[in-house]
Amino acid sequence: MPQITVNGRVVEAKQGETILSALDREGIRVPTLCHVKGLEPRGACRVCLVEVEGFRGLVPSCSYPVSDGMKIHTHSERALEARRTIVELLLADHPDDCLYCQKSYDCELRSLAESLGIHQRRFRNTSEPHKLDLSNSFIVRDEAKCILCGRCVAVCNSVVVNEVLNFGNRGAKAKIICDTDVPMGLSTCVMCGACVQACPVGALTEKKAMTKGRSNETRVVRTTCPYCGVGCQLNVQLNGEDLVRVTGVENAEPNRGSLCVKGRFGYDFPYAKDRLTTPLIRENGELRPASWDEALDLVASKLKQIIAESGPKAIGGVSCARSTNEDNYSMQKLFRAVLKSPNLDHCART
Amino acid sequence: MTPELQQRIEQIASRYPQRRSALLPALHLVQRESGGYVGREQLTGVAKLIGVPVSDAYGVLSYYSMFARKPIGKYHLQVDTNIPAMLVGAEEIVAHLEQTLDIRVGETTPDGLFTLSTVECLASCGTCPVIQVGDRYYECMTRERTDALIASLRRGVLPDMPVTANFGTTCDVLLKRRGTPNATSIEVYRQTGGYQALPAALAMAPAKIVAEVKASNIRGRGGAGFPAGVKWGFLAKNTGKPTYLICNADEGEPGTFKDRQIMEYDPHLLIEGMIIAGYGIGANLGFIYIRGEFAWIAEILERAIAEAKREGLLGGNILGKGFDFDIIVHLGAGAYVCGEETALIESLEGKRGNPRVKPPFPAVAGLYNCPTIVNNVETIASVPFIIEHGAAGFTKFGTPNNFGPKIFGISGHVRRPGAYEYPLGTPLTELLAAAGGVVGRFKAVIVGGLSVPILTAAEAEHLIMDYDSCLKAGTMLGSGGIMVMNETTSIPQVALRAIRFYAHESCGQCTPCRQGSRTLAELLETLVAGRGTSADIDLVGDLCRTIKGTTLCPTGEAFAMPIEAMVTKFRDEFEALVR
What we know:
Chain A is an alpha+beta fold. In chain A, about 25% of the residues lie in helices and about 20% in strands. Chain B has 24 helices and 18 strands. Chain B has a six-stranded mixed β-sheet, sandwiched between helices. The model of chain B has no long low-confidence stretch (mean pLDDT about 95).
């Protein structure tokens, strides 16, 4: 086991792990922008640079492996100066419209600038004018705000493997492209929105969240996606009763932050005018609203009646693909163990 | 895409251990066959054929400056305006062309005949100004020669416009055959002592070859000066994977035109060096990654490789000794950063030329994740001499820790710019004298290619040209590309042109290089335009100082030292521009 020293403190590290991974475990915070947990480090943004004794240059903690005896300084004057300069350089190519930005309260660049004590520009702003790409039904792209961290490219290619986003051009002209540099709405994008969730700044945002309020005005409710049986974990952001946006819960099974287009963007139904809000009972060819107790009592009495007259094989159940695994399990238990009927099927079976 | 074109791409792909490596050659081919550009449809076709996502293929296409995505003129006139060219009037050639053709840089004539572009260093520093038209170089251009070129192109003829390039050697190792007629042919190479080292090498144990190269102490000639034998020693052993040898012929450091002297005039010397090096390190396949602009030199190499194969010197069972070795010449497509070895490897794998994070180093996980050695042309071309004359023969040249002959490319304000082979440790004054002396009053010099700190004439007076002496003098030997400047040179202009080069060539991955070069360019533009302040000069210096040691690759920070040196040593010139 390699032993390293971090800011004068001796730390046990694991063989082959990166400096960042050891620091994370020890609760020593070094900022990152391009890093996506679980994916190959790119070492590109350079904000995670730390000073290691005996090294000429600063070392990217996200990609550099630990070795025994390493003496690391995460917040030395040199490391901080470099980090500050790098953020200042990113700001030199970033618009000054935080006041109007949807990401304002969750912007990692803004928060990083604040934590490094950057209060004004040292370098002239050379950012391009806004170039909004509104062609996608759910995702808004603003190239001007992109800091080229590459997190969107990483998740598009290595997590969801849609292979739509990539880097185009090079140097100062480098930018994120869709397919052959076509508008996102004309590309092969399936609108899973993984890129939006990965974006640390306002370069990729949810179209439907526009004008619905900032994140500091919202509360988050964790829930399970109602669309299919996978049971993806959602964080639903609400502003009052208004649904602002849905994100996948990172580090939670089964989806680990990923969602499909329906789960992330298909949330209009709670507000649908023709949505059922109570059970309905048909009487004389007409449907009338009823309470849950009344409806369930009716179903139970009818089932009992059929079983009494014709035996349990006379009834059958069809389970719903949109309910959770747990609900489907309960359904089959109800039929097989309680009602003793073998007739059970599922609507997704073809 | 026609079935015939598809078949040719398949043929290229079959040569490589991994199919994706054929992406750049396929794009070159498609561009040539489709009237000079690669459209969306063609790109999608190539991507499907090679088996890469289309976004990925577009990322590659748009990375390299030699690929066009829109139609261009029949003749693409590309004028090198980098510093060595700038010093001898390239801007006048550009202005003359703009006037003659009645278009601006970046435009195409209405008849679709000419597109005019300015490009970065074409490695013709000793024969500047240079205009590249398609695959051909037109060097030592004057207004008159430019007029003659245009007149000929209007008639549909790519003319032959020979030049006399200056050279000299006191070592007779790397430039031994320079000046010998037909030296590129295998007959002449053999008659002048070539392929003598190869049989001797194949009779030795591979470990002995490595030991001899180690003992010669030859330091990598690409610029970093890392001992080549030590690098070979880092190779991962018993990995069960093949080992690859790559010759770095991506000569693009402004001021550098030395590797070209070897490949253009003595290709068999490089090939013999590759076979011996391959045998020494246990590689059966070698690559020569040559910059795309050198397509015509690649043809010279291909011809030489075919000759060597015919004579059983390359291919299977070389000279009946049971050693197999093949060489693939791989064209880059216009990207300076591909001279950085991990970027070169990425490019050879058919990707954007982005340098990799290190570790691992190529000797452990390089090309296709296999142990790989990347050496410069000049380094590999020195290997036959080391084997034939022993390390002791090699160390007769040079000074301790700085042994061997070296090609110095001398450009700028000298009377006879050219390539001069002298032992390491030669005084700069002697090299300048060989190049005919400085024209006008000697003001400053950059001695190791653009990426090293500039020296004032006073600092350069007693400079000894070897790795250690240059370091002691506050600069670096680098590639040995010496750019001489006289009193007519404006250092702020040089600084601005330099930073524009680095900004253009940044791969764009890491923030300090991508945005640092852009911000510095913006600051220097403001200063040169007379709109800057003293604080801007300070800011240039501060930014250069902070960027050192923060970039993903050594090329990323390459601008920091030279620009810092320019604003520090010639501060008065910058101050004079401040209101």
